[in-house]
């Protein structure tokens, strides 16, 4: 039996998803010709982090379409996923691609990306999604927490003005995506006939998706950046293990873990006092997960 569409909100139901911003930024508004290559060209850490991000975001249609299909029975959610979320994720990919090509023109971006997609594509399947639509929205809150804090961290690592501007715009998009996923999660839980999952079940899904953040996407992307870098950074990392360890430790040391934990706890809808008790120990866990 097909699930009912999200019902109109009553006064007792959660707030609706945030309103769509009237004017969204465009890749063309970024002046890639103004990149200060003297500030970025020798940044081995940012090279690996930005190229990896460019691969994942440029291949985002592989999973965004799966997710919109997953919510075909919920027209409001599916429409936002298809018309806004997928579009913005792909725009992030285009922005990262153009930045990487301008900052490191010697890197064979297209060849490396195609190699990445050949391995990454088969991993993006419907089977990876939670069968319970509400729980998958909670899991998406975890992913958006990861991208929000990741791009904030990269922005803080940047001293190149065009990159700093671009990362600020992308981070703002990810915050908006998080707010939508959280609002839709609450709507589905409150819909007539819905059987809300227990906090324990939501917590398990949130924790499992948190553990998965480092596994497929980032590791696959990073390996393909390493495999195609050629003679770049000859005096830098001498093995994949070394660069992997170095950049994950760097990100971990700058990660805004307190912010990440606050975002991760929202799908549990805990009393504020309980949230305050557990935020600090969970912040330490978040840092260890990223650095492990």
Explain what the structure shows.
- There is one protein chain.
- This protein has 292 residues and is mostly helical.
- The chain has a single domain, classed as Ribonucleotide Reductase, subunit A.
- 67% of the residues lie in helices and 0% in strands.
- The chain has helices at 37-40, 44-58, 61-70, 75-103, 109-120, 133-157, 161-190, 199-212, 214-227, 240-254, 257-265, 272-291.
- α2 (44-58) runs antiparallel to α4 and α6 (133-157) runs antiparallel to α7.
- It is globular.
- Residues 1-15 have low confidence and may be disordered.
Give the averaged pLDDT, no decimals. Answer: 86
CATH arch. level architecture:
Orthogonal Bundle
How much helical structure, as a percent, in the residues?
Answer: 55-70%
What is the CATH T-level topology?
A: Ribonucleotide Reductase, subunit A
3D shape: globular
Number of domains: 1
CATH superfamily caption: Ribonucleotide Reductase, subunit A
Largest sheet, in brief, is: none
CATH domain class name: Mainly Alpha
Helices and strands, in N-to-C order? Answer: HHHHHHHHHHHH
How many E-type strands? 0
Number of helices: 12
Region (Disordered): 1-20
GO molecular function, one term: oxidoreductase activity
InterPro entries: Ferritin-like_SF (IPR009078), RNR-like (IPR012348)
Protein name: Ferritin-like domain-containing protein
């Amino acid at each position: 039996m097909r699930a009912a569409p999200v019902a109109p909100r009553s006064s007792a139901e959660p707030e609706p998803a945030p309103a769509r911003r009237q004017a969204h930024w465009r890749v063309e508004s970024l002046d890639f010709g103004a990149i200060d290559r003297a500030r970025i060209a020798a940044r081995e850490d940012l090279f690996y982090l930005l190229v990896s991000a460019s691969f994942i975001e440029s291949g985002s249609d592989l999973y965004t379409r799966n997710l919109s299909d997953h919510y075909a029975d919920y027209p409001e959610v599916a429409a936002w996923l298809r018309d806004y979320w997928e579009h913005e994720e792909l725009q992030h990919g285009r922005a990262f691609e153009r930045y990487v090509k301008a900052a490191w023109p010697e890197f064979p971006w297209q060849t490396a990306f195609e190699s990445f997609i050949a391995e990454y594509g088969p991993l993006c399947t419907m089977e990876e999604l939670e069968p319970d639509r509400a729980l998958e929205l909670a899991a998406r809150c975890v992913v958006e927490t990861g991208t929000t804090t990741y791009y904030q961290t990269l922005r803080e690592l940047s001293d190149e003005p065009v990159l700093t501007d671009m990362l600020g715009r992308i981070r703002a998009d990810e915050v908006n995506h998080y707010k939508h996923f959280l609002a839709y999660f609450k709507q589905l839980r409150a819909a007539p006939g819905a059987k809300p999952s227990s906090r324990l079940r939501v917590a398990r899904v949130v924790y499992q998706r948190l553990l998965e953040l480092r596994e497929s996407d980032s590791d696959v992307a990073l390996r393909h950046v390493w495999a195609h870098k050629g003679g770049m950074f000859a005096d830098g990392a001498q093995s994949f293990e070394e660069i992997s360890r170095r950049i994950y430790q760097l990100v971990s040391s700058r990660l805004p873990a307190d912010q990440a934990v606050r975002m991760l706890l929202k799908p549990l809808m805990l009393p504020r006092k309980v949230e305050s008790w557990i935020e600090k120990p969970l912040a330490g866990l978040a840092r260890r997960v990223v650095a492990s």
